[in-house]
Amino acid sequence: MKKIYYRIPMLMAAALTAVTCYIEKPFPDDEELMGEQLPAWKAGYLDIHHISTGRGDCTFMILPDGTTMMVDAGDLSPKGKTQEIMELVPDSRMTAGGWISLYAKKFLTDAGLQPDKLDYFLVTHFHDDHVGNPLNGGTSGKGYVKVGVSEVGSRMQVGKIVDRGWPYDSDCPNFDVFKNSMVMNYRAFLADRGTSMEGDPAERFVVGSNEQFALKYDKTTYPDFEIRNIYCNGDIWVPSSGKTENLIPEDASSSAMSDENIWSSVINVKYGKFSYHCGGDILNTWNIETRVAETIGQTDVYSCDHHANGTMVEAVLRATTPQVFVIPVWDYYHPQPPALKNMTDKTIYPDDRLIYPAGMLDSNRERLKNDGADQILQDGHIVIRVYEGGETFQVFVLNDRSIYYDVLHKSQILTSK
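Request: output the structure for the sequence above.
Response:
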């Protein structure tokens, strides 16, 4: 049975407050038991799906003109992990990459778009919960294992792939990671991809660009939409100058320099007044997370950096004042109490906020019961639907234990800031 946490919002004294109820519901086993369905995307909507598989990060977006984009497709190996990890969801009949592809195809079909096509794919950094661990997949027969990104790439037609390393030479920070088995498997996938296309099979993330992930089909109708590349590989975009600044100190320690998380690619999605942050696993090493927050400013929906572990510091929250937090989580140790306490602390900023996890173990809720767990809402596939023009948006939570993806929870319609 899927445990369902509902938060029922009530307007009191012009402020949004909430009552939390806890109920259990069975999974729908056939179409007759399907619950409410997410209304199909239509032109003018921006849909941001945080896909829950229990194995890592994946964000899938349908942009206002029908351009499609995916960010990461994790498939970590639970073998040897000391912490409790979710079971693969909805079940173990397929790997995470298989379920991710099925999910994307379903919602592309509903939208009337080509069901097997992704225009853009961004790999934020090279960890298995973002790229996929070769131990989890099956061979392609072409020199690589289909897992995570490479599995999605083998099941769907992907246009442009962007990562922080291409072409993986020594001018890139932490370049030794490019030689490990996980990244070599991904690179073998790219090499095979390159045999059937013109030009390079990938390109490097360009800090400051708002053209690398541009709308492809009707850009003129949506002039207030952009995806801006904010940070990567130690460089941050400086809006006042239009140039970049390097944040790596001269005395940077070798341990910091070898931390793959801090080199993550960061994007900011803007649609009219609406703003969304996707920061991979950046940390606040050298104030990276704080500088990113100060650059993007007020943000309506904030996908928590590094699964809300060692991040979400006070300066970040004061700069961004999110209305909604999404926590990419699937194990016992995320989020960490200091991050969750900051996210729920109204002395940092007074506005109401909603907190959604893409996956949440019951034992994790129990662990965090004194640290703000009562403010964590329903887990599942977290969908942010931004309505035409970006003035308003709404959060839907879909059942991650069913291939029917019925709606378990939906927020009120919120006003973008």
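The first strand starts at residue 2 and ends at 12.
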